[in-house]
Structure formats: structure tokens, C-alpha cells
Amino acid sequence: MPVSAVSDRRAQEDALSRKEASSSAAALPDRLLRFLPRIVRDHLGDFIKYGVIGVFGTLLQTGTLFLYVEKGHGDPLIGSALGFILSLLFSYAANSRWTFKESGSSASALVKYTVVSCAGLLLNLLILYLFDRVLGWWYGYGQITAIVLVPIHNFILNKAWAFRTPKREGL
């Protein structure tokens, strides 16, 4: 076989390998998305916005905790509670304006959002308890699991309940 034919064949094989690798890499997000509940997949843009706000809310809560304890020499539980309240108010305002903007904001939505956030906190604590006390595993594994599950749980409840847009009759 001539040298040019061998190099042409190798070039074709390399191109095919790159194409297969590219298509399998592109398929990876699709495979990961299948693990998400349908409501999250159907509103992926909103879920991403929710996640961005969640990161800022977490930084606000953690920052409040550290400032309260380290600068004010206060009790960590009080600092964490204050951080939770500030984070809740910030994330409600941001989500009602950016993520769930079609439904507007109201006192009713704030109460529902607070209920969902408290349910998420309880779910987080339940997951930590399960990993740490029941299974005897490192609590960090529980927190990592909670970081994945609680935002999905909260997004679904907020989308379907707290910020649900009422359906108009006759349309």
C-alpha cells in the first residue's frame, strides 16, 4: 500500500474518531439531563437562574454567619439564623424578579417561598442526619447530596406552587 494511501486512511480514521468523541461529548449533557425531573428539564433556563441566585444566597448566608461570629463575637446559631433570613429575603426578591418573573411577587408568594425554603432546610437536615447518624458516613457526603437534591426540590415546589401563574379561564 502506498504511503499516501496509508496516511489518507489514518486521516479518515482520525476524523472519524474526533467526530465520535465530539458526538459522545455532546450527548453527555443529554444523558445527565435525563436524571432531572421533567419540570426541571422543561424549565432548564429558569433552573439555571435559580441556581445562580442560590449561589449568591449561600454566599450571603455564609458571609453573614462569619461576620456575625468573627467580627461581632456572636453566637454561630444566631449568625446562621440571621444569614438564613437575609438569604431568604434576597433570594425571594431576586427569584420573583428574574427567575419566576411571569408570576410577579406578592405577600402570598413570599409566605409560600418561605415554606418551601424551610422545607428545603428540613430536607437538608434529614439528609445530613441520615448520612451521619444512621449510615455512619462522613457528614460531607450528606451535604454534597443535599446540595444536589435540595435545590431541585425547592425549584420544583417554587415553580409549581409558590410562583405558579394562575391559569386564565376561557383561554
Overview of the molecule:
It is built from six helices and no strands. The protein is an all-alpha fold and about 170 residues long. The relative contact order is 0.09. Helices cover about 80% and strands about 0% of the residues. α3 (about 45-70) runs antiparallel to α4 (about 75-100). It has one domain. The radius of gyration is 23 Å and the shape is extended. InterPro entries: GtrA_CellWall_Glycosyl, GtrA_DPMS_TM.
Largest sheet: none
Helix % is over 70%
Structural class: mainly alpha
Q: Span from first to last CA? A: 71 Å
Low-confidence stretches: none
Query: How many structurally independent domains?
Result: 1
Shape type: extended
Strand % is under 5%
List the helices and strands in order: HHHHHH
Main location: membrane
Subcellular location: Membrane
Membrane topology: Multi-pass membrane protein
Keywords: Membrane, Transmembrane, Transmembrane helix
Brief synopsis:
With 171 residues, the protein is an all-alpha fold. It has 6 helices and no strands. The mean pLDDT is 84.
Sum up the structure in keywords.
171 residues, mainly alpha, transmembrane helix, GtrA family protein, membrane, GtrA_DPMS_TM, transmembrane
